[in-house]
Amino acid sequence: MGLNDSSPGAMRNGRGLSDQWAETVVVRPRTTERHITVHKRLVLGFALSILTLIIVTALAVVLSVRFEDCGSRDVATGESGSRGSTKLNGSKGERGDEEGVQPWRNLRLPGTLRPRHYDLRIAVYMDNFTFSGEVSIELECINATRFIVLHSDRLEVDRVSVTAEGGANGRPANRPGGGAMRIHRHFPHPTTQMHVVVLHRELKPLRVYRLNVSFEAAIEDELLGFFRSSYTLHREKRFLALTQFSPIHARKAFPCFDEPVYKATFSVALRHDARYAALSNMPEERRVLEEDASVTTRFSRTPRMSTYYLAWAVCNFTFRETTSDTGVTVSERTTLGAL
User: Fold this and answer.
1) Radius of gyration for the chain, computed over Cα atoms and rounded to the nearest angstrom
2) Is residue 302, in this structure, part of any structural domain at all?
3) Residue 62 domain-assigned (yes or no)
4) Residue 200 is part of a domain; what is its CATH number?
5) Chain segment 245-297, per-residue pLDDT in tens
6) How many structural domains does the chain have?
7) Partners of 136 in beta bridges
8) pTM of the model
9) For the sheet containing 225-233, what is the strand order?
10) Domain range for residue 149?
11) Which of 194, 195, 243, 327 has the least C-beta neighbours within 10 A?
């Protein structure tokens, strides 16, 4: 039979061969390969997105820390557009803690306020070695601020109030608005040993204000601040309480501007048990017997000086006095029986 034979039998055999060849061909699942490729791309894209998010978050944290450090350095170095009559550790004009300005985070006081006089009243309880006090500080505003920042270490601050007194150097205020200032909040910042008073409105330059703070604390035994000591007399242990404020420990005894540059005058009154005597830098002015049988000893006003020069003691020492050729009275204090 020839090649051109087109009989039905040959055609049937041809179809059979074609069908057999088709059955031997393996068809690969192209759809499955495409799905695998798409899944790999999705996983890769998701991983890149997570990596990008981590990098962006890290950069944001670094930039925020750098920004806060720059702000703190600006406040510390006193880069300020406003100027007062006197500059102490020059300070930036604060706009509010809600805007990120936090001068209490610096190691130095901001310099927007200057103390002029402290009226200090301390009640000493030798039976349980505690004390309470009230301090009234006359402040002169140097640069406008809503913050009163001063030192306080281990003191429990109770009540705080601020009043407007008038103009600088005791002159009356040129504008109305004296009286009590509204306090937004006050809080301690132990890291820098400061206490912060946040006001609703700014203190104005060249005006005088009065800050009143009540507080209490323990009389510690670490020989710093206002601490206790003891001695033995006739086999009896006796105690005394005294101060050591140098160089920066006055803040342990009362809220104050505890840096040498802030000089002021001090009026001290000590309330104590009648069995004890009270001493301070200045001569005793008067002694008042209170209703509870305790005694309040008031002392003369000190010269203008730094906080670390202030000193007082509550003890039952005896003393001996003499007068020099130039008329200066010299007093020596010691334990009973030592003279």
Assistant:
1) 40
2) yes
3) no
4) 2.60.40.1730
5) 999 999 999 999 999 999 999 999 999 999 999 999 999 999 999 999 999 99
6) 1
7) 119, 212
8) 0.69
9) 225-233, 236-244, 312-315, 277-280
10) 113-334
11) 327
Distance CA 156, CA 218 (A): 10
Torsion from C-alpha of 302, 306, 307, 308, nearest 10 degrees: -110
Can you read off the two tokens belonging to residue 277?
């005597």
Find all residues with CB under 8 Å of 278, minimum gap 6, and list them: 270, 272, 284, 295, 297, 312, 313, 314
Q: Is the pLDDT of residue 99 over 70?
A: no
Pairing mode, if any, of strands 113-125 and 265-272? parallel
Q: What is the pLDDT of residues 42-90, one digit of tens each?
A: 777 778 888 888 887 878 766 765 645 554 444 333 333 333 334 444 4
Q: What is the pLDDT of residues 112-170, one digit of tens each?
A: 999 999 999 999 999 999 999 999 999 999 999 999 999 999 999 999 999 998 655 54
| Interatomic CA distance for residues 103 and 109, integer angstroms | 7
112: left (phi over 0), alpha (psi -120 to 50) or beta: alpha
Domain annotation covers residue 312: yes
Nearest CA among 319, 312, 322, 321 for reference residue 335? 319
Across-strand partners of 278? Answer: 314
pLDDT at 165: 87
